[in-house]
Design a protein that fits this description.
- There is one protein chain.
- The chain has two domains: 454 residues, YVTN repeat-like/Quinoprotein amine dehydrogenase (Methylamine Dehydrogenase, Chain H), CATH 2.130.10.10; 228 residues, 3-Layer(aba) Sandwich (Rossmann fold), CATH 3.40.50.
- The longest helix has 16 residues.
- By secondary structure, it is mostly beta strands.
- The chain is built from five helices and 43 strands.
Length: 691
């Protein structure tokens, strides 16, 4: 029945989109053209000048074909719903409340696509009254016209909304925090047109924080804490609801779900996944996100505060909250496997010492998540911009379950903080949304909403399992190659079947060492992302042997001064200034302004050979332009030009060095490695060098 309803309303969707809409009730409309990266098909796009969200409401965003719909709360406290058309890049915003709720990101609305195609939203104040507010769109798939706001009174002060429709029951649920700060739920038999009190989920003295996810058929999963991490040394538990009963992870029945204002359930009745030790004030956990994999198995992420302050402390907040970690847990059908996966950095602000930038899951891929952190996700070193810590958005991916995670920045070197990502996905793409700006408290913020589109990658097998070895260095000026190259190496192995290895060098630049470099003797391709290092004659000899054998090389960004050491080298070590003009075929003539981005333009018509599969539009790299003047080998085949601050030169080309094929690009800024055009170009270049 549901599939037929969706088919019916979908056939009318384009008809509705052509109508001239009349705004009703309290809804106000404002269409805006995104102002960031308008010519770049993969953004980031500015979607709203003023918006925010908390993370205990779901769903806060929907992906419906080529439309993204998301909720927000402005700095003035207005609840909004925004549509982002991915095909036209236009946005339309509707204001649902204006002056009825105070500024507070906890008031943000939840969204649900109803079986009849209309969009339902519910929202509440932050424990200011007992009212759950709700309304639906007047027409399917169209946020431009809404019914008048309705309310349902509950049995206590309310906060949060979480909407789920179960097809087997033909019922809609709204889970919220209600009387005595315990979780409760409402039930609707008409997709949210009317509601009745369902029951109380937990009854106990704590204030638990829950995240939910549903299979859409019969089951609703949840994870929960014991209480607020300020007041509890939290554990994290998992359970699920089905057919009116509550179960542990392994299917063991706990007891029936309450259908009244009392409940015999509490968090500790369910499966313990993370033991924070309720008696010890260390490793205090907080729930972040939960999803289901293609088998219906739950997986979730959470944060852990390693340095909490004394329980209940509200004054001496400077004594803790500077070391958070993100954890990932997945159920394999028999047990929970949980582990720390990344450094989360410091608290967002004093007083809420457990607030992080947040971590969120890919809804269709258990091997991808996004997170915000103000430290390097592996080392925990602060991310500094002009001496100030900045939260950046990262994408994490692994080859498969049980394998290591790798990270690449979505934002980097930002002038403002980037926090609270949300991920949407379908079979063709994933979309990430995030907030950028000032976040002082949950009632005082000035944030913009950004979005980025990433198409799902093509997977093509590598010919004869070719081996690629990356030679990289880590220093503050080498563009986080220690993050981006392992990430890219993993993707080459995962998506294209190459054998890949990353060799991260160590030691001072004047006496640098690449561990186990002799292993490059069976490599088919060497990739350089090194900056001003001197190697021993033996190690330089191994690289020269690779070239003398006619094997290919690929240089990325700082490769154009890979062995150009300005200081005097240590005894027993050598520089190799001739590597750039002789092998790469140009001279390093400095850089454009460090803070000015580069517009990337095609030197040849895309569509063939190394430019096959790239979109014809120019795109933007967040990195500055590397200058080479007129020094480029006249026989080089220029693929891309870069423009910045009135200067222009080649930024990607191929050439020959003896019998070796050479590809070089001065692109390679950290955010380039999550830009589909750049990744596709690198893959084309690798295929060309190995041909």
């Amino acid at each position: 029945m549901i599939d037929s309803i969706f088919a019916m309303v979908a056939s009318r969707y384009w008809f509705y989109c052509t109508l001239a809409f009349v705004i009703t009730g309290a809804s106000l409309s404002s269409a805006q053209q995104p102002t960031a990266s308008q010519s770049d098909p993969y953004g980031p796009f500015l979607l709203s000048e003023d918006g925010s969200w908390c993370w205990f409401q779901d769903e806060r965003a929907l992906l419906i074909e080529d439309k993204v719909i998301f909720t927000g709360v402005t700095s003035a406290g207005h609840n909004t719903v925004t549509e982002w058309d991915l095909s036209t890049k236009q946005t339309t915003t509707q204001v649902l409340t204006e002056g009825t709720l105070p500024p507070d990101d906890h008031n943000v609305a939840a969204l649900m696509l109803r079986p009849d195609g209309k969009i339902l939203t519910t929202y509440s104040g932050h424990s200011i009254d007992s009212l759950v507010r709700y309304r639906s769109t007047n027409r399917p798939f169209d946020i431009r016209s809404w019914e008048e706001e309705s309310v349902v009174a509950t049995n206590g002060r309310v906060c949060y909304s979480n909407l789920y429709y179960l097809e087997d029951e033909d019922l809609t649920y709204n889970f919220f925090r209600g009387n005595e700060n315990n979780p409760h739920y409402l039930v609707s038999k008409d997709y949210g047109d009317s509601w009745e009190f369902g029951g109380r989920l937990f009854e106990f003295a704590g204030r638990s924080y829950l995240k939910y996810v549903s299979d859409g058929k019969s089951r609703i999963h949840f994870i929960t804490t014991d209480g607020h991490p300020r007041h509890f040394n939290n554990n994290i538990y998992h359970g699920y609801l089905e057919n009116g009963n509550a179960y542990r992870s392994d299917g063991t029945l706990v007891r029936p779900l309450s259908t009244n204002e009392k409940s015999s359930l509490q968090p500790s009745d369910f499966t313990l996944v993370y033991d924070g030790d309720l008696q010890t004030r260390t490793d205090v956990a907080w729930t972040s996100d939960i999803q289901l994999d293609e088998r219906g198995m739950p997986f979730f992420v959470f944060s852990v505060t390693k340095d909490p302050i004394t329980r209940g402390e509200t004054r001496n907040t400077s004594l803790g909250g500077f070391d958070h970690r993100y954890h990932y847990a997945e159920w394999n059908g028999r047990e929970w496997i949980a582990a720390e996966v990344a450094h989360a950095g410091s608290r967002l602000y004093p007083g809420e010492n457990e607030y992080t930038g947040l971590i969120t899951l890919h809804p269709r891929n258990a091997s991808v998540f996004y997170f915000s952190s103000d430290v390097h996700p592996v080392s925990g070193e602060p991310l500094l911009v002009n001496g100030e810590r900045r939260y950046e958005i990262f994408r994490a991916e692994r080859r498969e379950a049980g394998e290591p995670w790798y990270f690449s920045p979505i934002t980097f070197g930002s002038s403002e903080d980037n926090i609270r990502p949300i991920v949407l996905a379908d079979s063709e793409k994933e979309v990430v949304l995030w907030l950028s700006g000032r976040y002082t408290t949950y009632r005082d913020y000035q944030l913009k909403v950004y979005g980025k589109i990433l198409p799902n990658p093509e997977t093509t097998p590598a010919p004869q399992q070719k081996k690629i070895t990356f030679l990289i260095s880590k220093d503050p000026d080498n563009y986080e190659a220690d993050l981006t190259i392992p990430y890219f190496s993993m993707k080459l192995a995962k998506e294209n079947g190459y054998q890949t290895e990353v060799i991260l060098g160590e030691g001072e630049r004047t006496a640098f060492h690449l561990p186990d470099l002799e292993r490059i003797q069976d490599s088919d391709l060497l990739v350089f992302f090194l900056r001003r290092v001197a190697l021993s004659p033996e190690q330089l000899g191994l690289i020269r042997n690779h070239l003398q054998a006619g094997k290919p090389v690929l240089g990325i960004r700082t490769a154009n001064h890979a062995f150009s050491v300005r200081e005097e080298t240590a005894p027993g070590y050598e520089d190799w200034w001739a590597f750039v003009p002789e092998v790469l075929g140009h001279e390093n003539m400095g850089y454009g302004p460090a803070t000015v981005k580069t517009t990337v333009a095609f030197a040849k018509k895309p569509g063939k050979r190394l430019l096959e599969g790239l979109k014809a539009q120019p795109w933007t790299s967040d990195g500055n332009l590397y200058l080479i003047g007129n020094s480029l080998d006249p026989k080089a085949n220029i693929l891309l030009n870069g423009n910045s601050s009135g200067q222009s030169n080649a930024i990607a080309y191929t050439r020959k060095y003896g019998k070796s094929r050479v590809f070089y690009t001065s692109l390679g800024y950290p955010t380039d490695f999550t830009h589909p055009q750049f990744l596709h170009l690198l893959k084309n270049a690798i295929r060309w060098t190995l041909d």
